[in-house]
Amino acid sequence: MIEAQGLVKVYGNKPAVQGVSFTVQPGRVTGFLGPNGAGKSTTMRMIMGLDRPTSGDVLVNGKHYAKHRAPLREVGALLDAKAVHTSRTAYNHLRAMAATHSIPTKRVHDVIELTGLGAVAKKRVGGFSLGMGQRLGIAAALLGDPQTIILDEPVNGLDPEGVLWVRNLVKALAAEGRTVFLSSHLMSEMSLTADHLIVIGRGRIIADAPIQDILNNRAQRVRVRTDRPDVLTRALAGEGVSVEAREPELLEVSGVAARAIAETALAQQVLVYELTPLQASREEAYMDLTKDEVEYHSGPLADVHDHAGTAESGRHAAVAAGVSQEGN
Amino acid sequence: MSAATLTPQTGRVTGPGVSFPRTLNSEWIKFTTLRSTWVLLATTVLVMVGIGLLGGWGIASGMEQMEAAGQDPAAAGMDSSLLYLMTSGGLDFGQLIIGSLGVLLIASEYSTGMIRSTMTAVPSRLSPLFAKALVVAVVAAVVGILSSFITYFLLQPVLANYGREFGLDVENLIQSMLLSGVYLAVVALMGLALGSLLRNSAGGIVSLVVLLLVLPIVAQIIPFDWVQDGVMPYLPSNAGRQMVMLETADGDLTQWQGGLVMAAWAAVLLAGAAVTTKARDV
To answer: What is the pTM of this model?
Structure first.
């Protein structure tokens, strides 16, 4: 169980986390989703007592992390994969960590086997790939067999087999009644792993709900092809309705069901030659949530081409963008 | 804390918790499982013994030459007491290596990110710092004492060629050899404190060199009396040198005073390191 109350962290003048409150319940996998720089890692560092909150408070298993008698047995955390001295072997790193709580050497061997590090355990960590570093970080997090597990971007750098392994591991840990809190910037990963989602953007909580609610909560969109888009647009206008002109005869309508659009078109005597309800992808649901909250916006490709030179290439890019939209 | 006083939520957790002896054990494992530790320690012994032997040999042969030329070596400041000091003659160089070891012990944790693992395992923060201090101080002392005794025993056959060998019963000799270990321990603590304050290996080592070597030289060339009398003797390496003397001149700091002044430097730096370790984000 993790309880955050009004957490604020300001680095210099730059606010990283701006009043975040949430509760992470045991027995399920809670995803912490947000774009890069949204404040995920900072929040996790505050949970672990590494960063002092500018204001607010956060408790793990009912206490401040640092107040626990046996912190490694309460909470296991992977905060960044290479929080390890590069010149030490994986085995010795884990042995030193274990020694602080008199965790027996057998448990060190167990977590090495569990995380598949057996072959490289006696090698120096400096030569590890990102994926092996992640596995070592997870091994360290599991060392104390903790009730609460916090993993920051655990699948970063893992191969597909490793990603699947982490997914199954966290689900199994949650099924045992443990609190599992893991961050990611990938909605696709979260939708496969998490039961509950806390979405953060620019240091604020945007959503805190079961993952199905977040996926379903998105306004239904309908793609409409018509030879008189201007008339139809005017006729559809109303509260909660948005109509975007994608191409000269292509509209994307949200807030109105496909049948209602057809009825409006019939009433207006407008020819409609395509009417397709669009299934919101998980990434779209996420992009919708965070579109105003991302710190680093990528410019559209078309802009880049325009700046680069000819109108010709700009037109190509626009067409390409249109094509990718249809992929919805 | 007994299990009965734990809240129900944490009552589930069984097994030993964090304690200072366990933190000390962890820091000892960390200290001994880095190759650089052993390289630096072996280098310290080699350099200190080598310089002590070379120094002793040079002084003894110099004295012989002067006597052969009919001069009194004592008039040039070369007498047996100088030979005695050669048992810890490598201290000036040895202190730089041991001091660097102290800096690296903590600064490398900050540069690699290891410190976050350390502070997560032992969130009280000061325990790991003090455990490191204990480990590095004891090891530095052992290395210093070991180097002095190795130097002493290897030096005797060399000096015997000049008929200038001496026994361990020379007044204050053993005390000086033991205190050279203390000198290195204090330098290691200063290094550890600087490494912790600056969180940077290069910066820590440079500031240690400034403190131990550059400041005494700068102070020496400033001609004001208050610098010569009020600052010079109290610089850490100058005060420390008084500590390992077999005898101190009237008006200079005594062995005790020198040792206390040097220890005060380390204490102030360590206190600063403790405060910043507690206060700053990791």
So the answer is: 0.83
